[in-house]
Write a structure and sequence with these properties.
This protein has 374 residues and is an alpha+beta fold. It has 3 domains: 2-112, DNA Polymerase III, subunit A, domain 2 (DNA Polymerase III, Chain A, domain 2, Roll), CATH 3.10.150; 131-248, Roll (DNA Polymerase III, Chain A, domain 2); 252-366, Roll (DNA Polymerase III, Chain A, domain 2). Helix content is 17%, strand content 40%.
Length: 374
Amino acid sequence: MKIEASKDALLKAVSSADSVVSSKAVNAVLMNCLFNVFNDEIEIMATDKEIGIRTRIAASADTEGTFMLSGRRFANIVRDLPEGVIELSVDDRHVVQIRSQSGKVSGQYSIIGTSGENFPEIPRYGDEDVIEIEQAAFRRMIRRVIYAASTDTVKAVFNGVYFVTDEPKTISAVASDSRRLAMNTMSSSGGSDIAQGVILPLKAVREVNSVLGTDGVCRFFIGKNQCFFSVGNTEIVTRTIEGTFPNYSQVIPREYRFRIGIAREPLLESLRRAVNFTVEPVNKIVLRFEGSRLTIEARSPDFGESEENIVIETVPGDPIELGVNALYLIDALKEIDTDVVRVGVTGSKSPMTIAPENDDRYISVIMPLSVKSE
């Protein structure tokens, strides 16, 4: 079997598929990518049994066939070949020979592959009840919340992103590690809403985010214990996380003592300086709101101390101090693209909120730390 395909398309497809392959896979089959070759396209698949990915590229082949090989090794070879058409020759023993047609490289490379008959089936989905979201908006929504998800494997419901419909024709994405929370809502179209909500693993959400572009729509369908995504010529299927996501609406304050505007860039710069005087993993700083001034304090017996003032909108009433994790606040500010952010404070023992100016569809919540002397 002889196959010809563009280097760029081939490299992108194989790299995308191989990204779900686990280096710790016990089953040797799961360490490979499956290549289904047709006369005018190649379908490339990979799975770790939790997440599956299927992507297609244009190609020309003299016959149809199937084989498996290491996607990582294949991509490493193709990546350093010249631009242009890549020619693959696959013999009866599934040995794959790789050659560049550019004429700039005279080498030929052979990878030992295997039959694809034992590769696990990756489910497909139909067109009923499909939800559609603009790719650019969906990518932005994922970016705005994913940082707040937990990487701690003890509580599975925190190891992913929760997607739910709170209002018709909208989708909200929520992530939390129990010490902070981020939520973003956007409009959707298509067949159905996600009234019951679904928790998708962090790895799967990252894979979806990696294939999202700036044009077109992302289509997805929620089945029983599975969620399917279709982006261009790529499909991703993932198992959902079982369990009940915490009631995030109870965490978001409904009333504030004050909600003021602060210039984003000066605040972010000040926090980045202050974090150098904090101790991991708490990274505690103290924010003191008084009049039209915010004082940011950080101190450590080992590193020293810092104190910096920035100008803010006038805070009514008596001064108030709030302890927070500086890195959590930095993470939230990095995902906001307005010049001014709205900071909401209820009390020294209540959550603090950060949101873009004039945008009520995104909010980040940070739980407070004690402000007592250490």
